[in-house]
Amino acid sequence: MAHIMVADQERAIAQLLEASLAHAGHRVSKVDQPVDVEAAVRSHMPDLVLLDWPVGDGVSLSLIRRWRMQEVTRELPVIILTARSSDADKVAGLNAGADDYVTKPFAIHELQARIRAVFRRWYGPDGSIPLQVGPLRLDPGTRRLYAYGNPLLVGATDFKLLESLMRGSGRVQTRSALVEQVWGDSAAIETRTIDVHIKRLRDALSPAGCAAMIQTSRGLGYRVCEPSAANGAARLRRRSRVATLAVAA
Questions:
Q1: Over 90: is that where the pLDDT of 87 sits?
Q2: If you placed Cys at 8, which of 14, 85, 107, 129 could pair as Cys (CB 3.0 to 4.6 Å)?
Q3: Rounded to an integer, what distance in angstroms lies between the CA atom of residue 114 and that of residue 118?
C-alpha cells in the first residue's frame, strides 16, 4: 500500500492516525512538528502527507507553496488537517496547493475515504501508487523515476522493465517472465534482449550510485533489491571468487 506521512503536533491525533492507517495496510511515518516535514520528505518521499495547520501557524501553507514550485515535490499529494474551519481558511489552504482540507474533529473513516479520493485523482482509478525500493522511486502514473529525490531519465521500455522488477522487489524474475510483462506474451522477443535493456538500465542508474541494485541471478534472471542487500551480495561474490582462486592456486 501507500507510504503516508503524518505531520501533526497533537500526539493523540497522530497516534490515532498511525494506528488506523497501518490497520488499513499503509506504511506510516510520523513527524512531530510541521517545521520538520520538509527535511523528512526530502529524506523519505511519501505517497501522501497529512499536514497539520495549527492556529497561529504560517509555516504549513508556505511549505505547500514551496512543494508546488519544486520538481520533485510538485505532484506530492497533501491533505491539510486543522482546527481552522472558516471559509477563508479553507480557500487559503486549497489555493496554497493542498489537495483536500479536513477540519478537526474528523471521523477516521471519512478521512480514509478522502485519502482514497486523492489517490484516485493523482494516480488514476487503478490506484497506481509509486513504487519505492531503497532510494529508487518510480511513479507509473506520471512515468517518472527518481533516485534520492532527483529525477532520472530512462527510455520507455527500460522504465517498464524497472517497474516490473520493482513490483517483484527482492524476488528473482526470469527473462521469459520479464519479456511477457514488458512486451506481452505474443511478442517475438528474444529473452536475451532483456540483457541489453538491463545494461542500459544499469547505465542510467549508475550516476546515482544505484546500478548495483539490479542483480543478476546466473542462469535464472534478474531482481532489484535494497542497496544494503546489493552490497552484501557483491561482497559474497567477491569472497567466492577469492576462494575459487585460492583453490586453483
A1: yes
A2: 14
A3: 6
